[in-house]
Amino acid sequence: MGGCLHWYILKLIRTLIILALLSPVLGVAKNINTPIKAIEESSTFGKSYNALYNFIQNHEYLLAPLSATVAGAIRCGYQCGVIGGAVGIIDELALYFGYTDKHYLSWGIFGAVTGHVIKSSLVSDIGGVILGIMLPTGVLNEHQEIIAPVIGAIAGNSIAGNSGMINGLVGGILDEALLGNDLADKHYLTFSTLGEAVVNSLGYFSPFTANAIGMLLGLIAASYEKEIKGNMFFPIKIAEELYATYSKFIPTEQLNNHIEKHAIALIGSQFLTQFLSLKIINYNQALIYNFERLDNPNGPAWGNFGKEIANFVVFLFPYVLGQIATNSIDDYFAEKLQFVLGDKIRAGLFTDEIPLCLSNDLDSTVLIDNLRSDILKVVGSGSRLITNAVSTSIGGAYGIGIIVIHSPNILIYSTLYNKVYNFIEEYLAAQLKLYREKITALNSELMSTIQYDTKNIRTITERDGIEATRGKIEDIITAIRELGGTQKLWRITQQSWWSITGTADSIFNYYLAANEIQKGRIPFEDRNKVRTASRQVSNLLSWSGRTAQDMSYMRESLNRIIILEGKIHKAPAKIDQITREYKNIDHMKLQDLEIGVADRLLVEIKDLTLNMGEIYAITGESGCGKTSLLSKIKGIKENNIYGKGSIFYPLINGNNPKIVMLSQQDYFPLNASLYEIVSYPDKISGDPVLNNIKREEIQLLLAEIGLYAFSSNKKNATQEAKKKELTLDSKQDWHTYLSGGEKKKVTIVSAILKKPNILILDEPFNGLDLKSIPIVQQMLKKYLPDTLILVVDHHAQDNNYNFYDVELRIVDKKVVLRLK
């Protein structure tokens, strides 16, 4: 009776350790606390743009039942599959009506299948169900202290049976007690037991000698506990890193719901994939076995070979369907995250004055240049890595279970082998990353240089700077090519390493299994089972090395997104401490206002009243603070210009005044019609009546300001304009096509159309011919009679065609009023 009880305890412990290893994989939904129905009602995940993905999105409630069906069918055939599907349906209904907050029953099914695959027994099933239900609660993640006692018990059992199991269990418990009280920093007793188990399994030494050597080796191995544990759980780290990044942009409840659905679908699909893969391996082995016996024409081999070919062909169809379903589901969940992550980042990036803040940060250029590719890489590569991690972890867990039962020392040998492999692989990946980061920064500099100099090509040409631009670009390209050459050498080295290890891995796993067979520790009939398990364990332990390159790429992108997110949400410098208030007054008032840059005061205003309907010329020497003052009146804060004091704005019909500012530098959106440019930043109305009214107004204003080419009556247009038949809807590179004066006229028309209450113009008459200046001034007075207009004008005296009411001249940091 006692022996039987110990046998059951051992089976339960073995199931426990494997599911504990799987707990980080299956525990991805541990923070889900909101019913699905409530989450879906507030979901911000957008729709998919693919018919297949739309179908999945509209039927997400089927994911748990289907995954549970697959798991049940793997456990014990069609009947269990039906039971699993029913359990999944119950889970969904319980969640929908708010009775539960997680798919506990579905996780229980997953646990039962995991335990059963490891060891077919009632104890494994029961233990698997219990632990499976515990997984989404996060209990196992939070109580990793159970692993050492379990490992100690298994290792002890291999040394001295039941008594050894008890000794190992006690040793593991003592380890946890010592660690918990800061009396030790490693699991020394557990590693000693493992060392004894491995050396005893060799059979070369007496029990006493084997225990002594094993204990010594175990104590040495204990010093590498962190690295060993890191390799075991490395596949999970990527999921944690991605979760931390996504949670910065996506509400927690929504993200957790998305992750749990993905996890359930992924676990189910991976169960199916593992099952199908093992079937493929079995069919392949059977084919090889019969193929090697075709030398006897009269033997049964040919018939068996044909039978296996038929089985293989028939099985190939569901195998392909399973792969398609798995890939489609993975792509679906990755696409949803890609859309929402991209939308959230762009929304944050182009909000208020955040782009202005980032424009003052040179490092932001590289981050923004790579933003789209980084999002695609993080979501796409991250999703593939998670899928691969789950698949590898499940396969590795099965393999560990089989190895622990048949030959625990294979696990130790494989750990040592793959530790060396991972070290080399990660070193190569680090070298490639170093050069890739340098090349990425140079590519960003190259693109910025090309874009900036192309934009200013007219000025560069006039100043004979073409050669200088070309030289700078060639220097950057030369540096990129030099770094790229070294990077290619490292790439060749890495590819050569892959070729060598691809063959070495297969030989190593064959050797481990063959050695165990030769020692009589593995029955011959279990040879393929153990070899496959050894390969699965090797894949798990070498996962960090095999994915080091993809991880490196993904983490670079992840880090850039995290840095950009930090910059987007960085607390403002608050160097602008101006109080802005809106009152029922007929003027704008500046009071105790100070404007400056760094520690240099530019303008100081004690009390200044600006009346609505009047036009003010702002004059003064270059650099005296004219534009800085107007930017603060506009309300711009994060432009590295400090300010303090008060600005009181007038309420217009109970609303805040509409303020429009036209700076010296023109902005014409790319690939836009002149109609869109004049309307910018407002969108064109979809109402055809309003649209026609606005078109007529624009055409009249363009004709009045002297741009006849776009008016309805082109009799005054130049022959060239008539020939080109330009219209408001013509799309050109208008910034290049229009002359400086024409661009000024377009922006003035745009400002008039907006009918602002306060209009701020910075050098609006630069580039205009002498005939156009009075026309523009008359139009501003005509169409904006009640608007307060502030104009920076270095030539206010010469440009004043009965236009300015007051001149405000900045002299020695003070504003001096000069009446008309």
- Give the helix proportion (percent range): 55-70%
Helix tally equals 31
Low-confidence spans: 1-43, 717-724
Strand order of the largest sheet: 6-7-8-4-9-10
Number of strands: 10
Oligomer: single chain
Mean of all residue-level pLDDT scores: 76
Largest sheet, described in full? 6 strands, mixed
Beta-strand share of residues: 5-15%
| Shape type | elongated
**Integer-rounded radius of gyration:** 37 Å
Give the terminus-to-terminus CA distance. 112 Å
SS class: alpha/beta
Annotate the secondary structure layout.
Blueprint: H1 2-26, H2 36-41, H3 51-58, H4 63-76, H5 78-96, H6 104-118, H7 122-134, H8 139-142, H9 147-180, H10 188-202, H11 207-222, H12 225-246, H13 252-291, H14 301-349, H15 354-359, H16 364-369, H17 371-406, H18 409-455, H19 457-462, H20 466-518, H21 527-541, H22 543-546, H23 548-568, E1 576-583, E2 587-597, E3 600-611, E4 615-620, H24 626-634, E5 641-650, E6 659-662, H25 674-679, H26 688-705, H27 719-724, H28 734-737, H29 740-754, E7 758-762, H30 772-783, E8 788-792, H31 796-799, E9 806-811, E10 814-819
Helix pairs in contact: 1-6, 1-7, 1-9, 1-17, 4-5, 4-6, 4-13, 5-6, 6-7, 9-10, 10-11, 12-17, 13-14, 13-17, 14-17, 17-21, 17-23, 18-20, 18-21, 18-23, 20-21, 26-29
